[in-house]
Every structure is written in structure tokens, then in C-alpha cells.
Amino acid sequence: MTRFLFLFAPSVLCCTLGRCATFVWHSGVFCALSLALALPAAAQTAVDGAGIDTDSPWTLGVAAGYGRRDNPFVGSDDIKLNAIVDLAWYGERWFFDNGDIGFTLNQTEQFSANLLTTFDNERNYYSYLSNGSSGLDLSSLRELAIDKGFGMMGIAGGEGEDIEALDTEELEELIFKDQDTALPERDFAVNSGIELLYISRWGDLQAQLLTDVSGTHHGESAWLAYSYPWITRNSEFSLTLGMEWKSRDLVDYYYGVTRDEAIDGRPAYTGRAEINSVIRFSASRALSKRWRLVGVVEQEYLGKHIRSSPIIERGRVSTAFIGIYYKFL
After folding, report:
1. 80 and 188 belong to one structural domain
2. What does DSSP say about strands 79-90 and 30-34: parallel, antiparallel, or unpaired?
3. What confidence score (pLDDT) does residue 280 get?
4. Same domain, 166 and 28
5. Which of 14, 54, 272, 285 is deepest in the core (most CB within 10 A)?
6. Does 254 share its domain with 111?
7. Separation in Å, CA 10 to CA 30, 46, 162, 298
8. Omega of the bond prior to 10 within 30 degrees of 0, cis?
9. 276 with 171, same domain?
């Protein structure tokens, strides 16, 4: 099967003939993402006259390189992408693809229908909130301190505190005193549903309809994408246009602010259903039978009801990665 690399907000989306996975995890600055990116067997053979065994049900590969994904949350670090792991297994009907578990209901040369269980990775952004417990940035905290009459910015030795000399933690302690300002982390959700794939000479269509079966947010999401791949002797490219609908419950859980979580500078907010749009370009060039150069760039545009959340400061999420991929199986 031909494999394409895609990025799917907010995680990496890996497609095998359009069959997709959305699994991401991290440990400190090391971030391991799911990746399924391999050139067609014909392109691999053209490099050195020998292809990798395409009859094996297993795929195992590792990519190392440099990448970064924006974190749209206020007071957060961007997500570094340093290493990528690609692990998949395909049986006659059951499959595991980089965190996804699925069952093929029907498959022809052009069409496939699958039952799919996967993770909702909206939760990952919360692992990179960094600017103190409140999640507010230094500038916002200084403005709050001045509004509350604690001092004048930039005037040292005057009445009250020297606001400009205080760091994030000191400002939080000054403004909020004993109040608990931490934004509670959200939980991962397990989603299940149906996926439809259609492959044609004019491009590939993919549709997913998923619902939360873990009881985390009780919401739903839908993904619709068109992808056009083109292949040269040693290279493969793909351009993807996609839209993702997120239900009210999903948006409210990950991007809303409850009354108990509201503080000065972070008012309560109730999320509403929204649609994000994605444009993505990926490329791969075979260097040998097992080595290849891979890269991807993506822009995700957040919908209005996500951008309006007081814990979101960016309306666009940019992702880029370039690296060397080695295929073991």
C-alpha cells in the first residue's frame, strides 16, 4: 500500500491509503509522534533495485529531525517535535496504526469503510502550559497588578510594589494571594466511530465521524479532507485541504472555562460547536531502500468560538517538521 504523511490538528495524522491515525504523546522536550510515511514500492526499487518486503503485516520506522507545533493557549510553550515513531500492524480485517485500533467493514480497490477507535488529542496542549499556575502571561499579570493598585510599572522605589521587577510567580502571589489559580488539566478521551475512504485518479477523500466513548466530554467530532498526491521517480508529495467539526461538548470541555476556574484575567467561558480548517503539504524523498528525507508544513485555522476563549491567544496553529526517516520493517 502507498503511505502518505499528514498532520491532523492537534496531532499528527498518519494515513495508509487514506487510513488514518491520531496518536501523540510526549516526555519533556522529547515528543514521539505517530508517523506512517513510506514511498511506493516502485519508487523504493528505483533507488537501489531492491524493495522492502511489502507483504509483511508490520510497519516499523523511526524519524529524527527538527519540528515545532504552535500551542494556541495563553501562557504556554510551543510543542517541539524531535523524534517520530511509526508502528502499525494490518491483519485481514483488524489493524493497529500508531495508536488507532480498527476493523475493516468493506474494502475495494477504491473504497474502504472502517470502524475506528482512537484518542482525542486536544488534551496535549495542557501539558505545555508554562507561565505560572494561572496560565496568564507576564504582560497580562502586570496589567492586573496595576489595575488592582499594587504599583506603577517601571517606577522603582515608589509607593507599592515595583511591578516591572517582579517575575510571573511573584506577580501571581501578589495578585491572587492564597487563591488557587491553576487551570485544571483535561483528560484524554477515547473516540470511536466510522471512517470512509475513497481513492481516485483525481485525489483521495476521507471522512470520519467519531463520538466520545470514554465519557470524558461526551462530545462528537467529524473530519472531512481532500488530498491530492503526486509521485516522481524517487519522491512523493501531497497537498491536503481539510475541515474538522467539533461539537459543543467537546469545545466546552477543552476550551471552556468553568465558573470555578474563572479568575481575574480569565473569565468564565462556555464553548460552542465549531469548525477548524487545515491546509497541509508533505513531501518525501527516498535516499536508499530504508532511508528517506521527510518533511511537512501545516496551517490550522481555529474557529471563532475557539479563538474567543480567554485561554486561547492564537487563532492559527502552525506546524512544521523535517527529518530523516529509517524504515526497519
Report:
1. yes
2. parallel
3. 97
4. no
5. 14
6. yes
7. 17, 35, 40, 11
8. yes
9. no
Could you give the CA distance from residue 13 to residue 24 in angstroms, rounded to a whole number?
A: 9
Cell of 90: 494490518
Instruction: Give tens-digit pLDDT for 81-129.
Output: 898 899 999 999 999 998 899 999 999 999 999 999 998 878 888 888 7
The whole-number pLDDT of residue 201 equals 92
What would the grid cell of residue 49 be?
533495485
Q: Which domain holds residue 59?
A: 3-129+183-327
Residue 140 binned pLDDT confidence (cut-offs 50, 70, 90): confident
pLDDT band at 27 (very low <50, low <70, confident <90, very high): very low
Q: How many CB atoms lie within 10 A of CB 228?
A: 12
Are residue 192 and residue 87 in the same domain, yes or no?
yes
Residue 56: give its domain's CATH number: 2.40.160.40
- List the Cα angle 211/215/217 in 5-degree steps: 70
Unique residue bearing C-alpha cell 500508531: 98
Split into its structural domains, the chain has a count of: 2
Cell of 175: 495578585
pLDDT value at residue 8: 33
Mean pLDDT within 129-153:
75
Regarding whether 112 and 40 lie in a shared domain, the answer is yes
Q: What is the pLDDT of residue 99?
A: 87
Residues 311, 266: Cα–Cα separation, whole Å: 7
Helices 138-147 and 168-176 pack at an angle, to 10 degrees, of 30
* 120 and 206 assigned to the same domain: yes
